[in-house]
Amino acid sequence: MDLGLKGKVALVTGASQGIGRAIAEVLAAEGMQVAIAARNAEALNAVAKELGPSALAFPCDLTKVEVPPAFTAAALARYGRIDLVVNNAGNTTRGDFLSLTEADWEADFALKFHGYRRIAAATWLELKKTGGTLINIIGVGARSAKADSTVVGTVNTGLVYLTKALADLGVTDGVRVLAVSPGLIATGRWQARLEREAKLHGDATPAAAEQRLLRGWGLSRIGKPEEMARIVALMASPAASYVQGAIIDADGGLTRAL
């Protein structure tokens, strides 16, 4: 299926690994020009090389106020337009509420919440010009409160509200805004979690820990980064032109709340 994305321009943050990398790869395969951002310059440049000569790598720290406008300017200088922005950068902290530090809270809000907000603000007028789309990668932690996820859930819930509010503005400005909330996805972070779980609970292997967790959650399997990427590509396409303000749970059935 041709998604009608060929020749358009996408900005993807957190694209050096995991879901962000998969999104950049799928969008490039659909014929988009892709500008990618992340902290790890070596990993980011390697991804850009795989995407092809038209890709733009912009190593940066998205917690810095001046970075989103600079990333936007670099993309405009290279491509002259912006049609899609995918906010994906963000590594939030899990742990006991009383053990979380001020630095934990500040760092997580700085990168994920304020990073998303600043990228949206920096690119909004360009998206307005092209009738473009803004997609926030959030996480199903916004839907289910847990004691060890106070930072994760609070940041993600704030991003749900931000997505809905920007979608309201987007109706007037001609910008589509929505979010994809992944569940449990087979990334490096997930593998690290399985290794911790195996040690903590005495599982023979990380794979055994995964099966135990799946049984407990009532899930059949873990999701793949490329599955999230295909959803993003579809939502960015004209095929989803009537989707505005939606928060799409892509979690294999993990979220059972209304």
Features:
258 residues, alpha/beta, Rossmann fold, 7-stranded parallel β-sheet, 8 helices, 7 strands, globular
Question: Could you give a quick summary of the protein structure above?
Answer:
The protein is an alpha/beta fold and 258 residues long. It has helices at residues 18-29, 41-51, 67-79, 102-130, 150-173, 188-201, 206-217, 225-236, and strands at residues 9-13, 33-38, 56-59, 84-87, 133-137, 176-182, 247-250. α5 (150-173) links the parallel β5 (133-137) and β6 (176-182).
Structural account:
The chain is built from 8 helices and 7 strands. It folds into 2 domains: 9-185 and 224-248, Rossmann fold (3-Layer(aba) Sandwich); 187-222. α4 packs parallel to α5 (150-173) and α6 (188-201) crosses α7 (206-217). It is globular. A 7-stranded parallel sheet has the order 3-2-1-4-5-6-7, with helices on both faces. The chain has helices spanning 18-29, 41-51, 67-79, 102-130, 150-173, 188-201, 206-217, 225-236, and strands at residues 9-13, 33-38, 56-59, 84-87, 133-137, 176-182, 247-250. By secondary structure, the protein is α/β, with parallel strands linked by helices.
